[in-house]
Write a structure and sequence with these properties.
55% of the residues lie in helices and 3% in strands. By secondary structure, the chain is mainly α. The protein has a two-stranded antiparallel sheet. Bound molecules: heme C (HEC) (4 copies).
Length: 391
């Protein structure tokens, strides 16, 4: 296995010692940092932020310093085979080809790529090292599950089944479990059962939030479909059995009455809703006549999926979203003066309906969707296929 060239092995010990000091240090810096990175997102509340990558990055501890591997060895091994893991090495460290082209078009210096840059928001994970935000790895656990550090961060409490002595999961009291999970979610942890926020974190990076970048030739969006893109190289459902990668999060399977089929159906619908919401949030901010149609097309495609869902298995929430969105199709592709307020409001509306959908459904009533869901392939990147699937 090619070791990660990013310097996080080297910084790990200093980070571990440094961490308590660093936490204090960053807390005093965080407001400027957060606004420097994400000016447009300041209005959004914690729950309505689009992606974990857009949260204040000072909460990232990193896979090494967070010791994730000690308790999640199979998850870490799976992650190390993904392009997420490699992304900082291949897109930020090497200043060549399209990296160079995009960075130069945006006036980003090579020396900033591995620090706090637009590019490292999506191609890496950042933490404060020696008082400065630096890239510590590629797209990491915390990019999807939320930054875990800080004084009240979720890292130390997410795995503790009892205050003082080590007890196994099966002996945790239900009151303790309830409190622990509430604390973790309050601290920003995006847990596996939280399909909506996980999907939003994916789209937060897979739909680009910068018009200049798209104008420079960077893709506006991936051909992302939540069910298939989360069941290929990304899948790491080893919590209950580290030798078996389950079809759905194993801890969720063990603690809810849900099945993998139900979860796929929920992911399919929530994925389409999240795509529409995030595409419209980006569309709200877009002015460039080349970029607007690309984002509009993405929203229209998500609406197409919703139409299919409503045709096969109609639900109050997806019908409500289609009813609010469909009248916009007439102007979606053309920039209008009041775009920002119009699309932001519709996106908020869709977010509300999606949260309701997640509350009101568990997938058991959505079997009618199975014929279109079951044909979705598990998605693997070309790099992954070449290295691990075709021998
Ligand atoms: C000391 C052991 C330990 C360490 C270190 C640890 N974890 Fe965990 N983790 C656990 C345990 C135990 C659970 C299962 C918790 C439960 O039963 O609710 C878990 C669960 C999780 C979950 C799934 C939660 C859910 O309900 O779906 C995620 C995500 C996670 N850990 C991420 C991480 C990350 C990221 C790191 C490193 C920054 C990390 N963990 C470090 C022990 C650990
Ligand atoms: C909003 C998130 C986001 C930002 C910001 C971002 N990227 Fe990307 N980038 C992606 C995603 C997602 C992909 C993969 C797209 C796909 O193929 O599905 C990608 C792909 C790439 C690729 C490979 C494909 C190609 O076009 O050659 C390069 C190179 C790249 N990015 C460089 C950069 C650079 C340099 C910057 C900063 C100037 C940057 N990216 C900013 C998300 C982002
Ligand atoms: C912090 C930003 C970020 C988040 C969050 C994120 N991704 Fe990615 N993802 C990327 C980037 C960047 C690439 C492209 C890597 C490269 O080529 O440099 C990528 C590539 C991928 C690929 C490989 C695609 C291909 O064909 O090459 C898959 C699959 C994928 N992501 C799935 C997901 C899923 C599923 C989620 C949510 C559960 C997610 N990603 C969340 C940034 C992100
Ligand atoms: C690209 C986003 C992404 C990254 C990166 C990521 N996860 Fe996850 N994680 C998910 C998703 C999505 C699920 C739920 C999977 C599903 O629905 O099949 C999940 C599920 C989990 C679970 C629950 C598994 C179970 O069996 O219950 C744990 C534990 C976990 N992740 C830990 C980690 C650790 C540790 C890392 C880093 C080594 C990591 N994750 C990196 C998105 C991500």
């Amino acid at each position: 296995m090619k070791p990660c060239k990013v310097n996080w092995f080297a910084i790990r010990s200093s980070l571990a010692v440094f961490f308590s000091v660093v936490t204090l240090l960053i807390f005093s810096q965080s407001p400027e940092r957060a606004s420097a990175t994400t000016p447009a997102k300041n209005k959004q509340s914690q729950t309505d932020r689009v992606s974990a990558a857009e949260a204040p990055p000072h909460k990232f501890v990193g896979v090494q310093a967070g010791d994730c591997k000690k308790c999640h060895p199979s998850e870490v091994a799976t992650w190390m085979k993904t392009v997420h893991f490699q992304s900082a090495d291949i897109r930020l460290e090497k200043f060549e080809a399209n990296t160079k082209k995009y960075a130069e078009a945006l006036g980003i210096k090579q020396t900033d790529l591995m620090k706090d840059s637009l590019c490292s928001n999506c191609h890496g994970s950042k933490s404060v090292v020696n008082g400065q935000l630096q890239v510590i790895s590629g797209v990491s656990c915390e990019s999807c599950h939320g930054g875990s550090g800080g004084k009240n961060g979720w890292l130390n409490r997410h795995q503790s089944y009892h205050q003082s002595m080590p007890v196994p999961r099966t002996q945790e009291t239900s009151a303790h479990r309830k409190q622990r999970i509430a604390d973790c979610e309050k601290a920003g942890m995006v847990r596996a059962p939280d399909i909506y926020n996980i999907a939003k974190s994916c789209f937060g990076c897979h739909i680009v939030n910068n018009e200049k970048l798209v104008a420079a030739g960077h893709k506006a969006a991936s051909a992302f479909e939540f069910v298939s893109w989360s069941s290929g190289e990304i899948r790491h459902n080893f919590q209950v059995d580290k030798n078996h990668n389950a079809a759905a999060p194993s801890l969720w399977l063990a603690t809810s009455n849900g099945t993998a089929d139900q979860r796929r159906r929920m992911k399919f619908v929530v994925g389409a809703l999240a795509q529409l919401e995030v595409a419209l949030r980006r569309r709200a901010e877009a002015k460039n006549p080349v970029v607007v149609p690309q984002l509009a097309g993405l929203a229209a495609a998500a609406n197409g999926k919703l139409a299919q869902i409503n045709g096969m298995s109609p639900n109050a929430e997806t019908l409500a979203v289609a009813a609010t969105f469909t009248p916009l199709l007439a102007t979606l592709f053309v920039p209008q003066p009041n775009d920002e307020s119009v699309y932001a409001e519709i996106a908020d509306n869709i977010a509300e309906q999606t949260k309701l959908f997640v509350q009101n459904h568990n997938g058991s009533q959505l079997q009618a969707l199975d014929p279109i869901i079951n044909i979705l392939p598990a998605h693997f990147s070309q790099q992954y296929q070449k290295k691990y699937l075709k021998k």
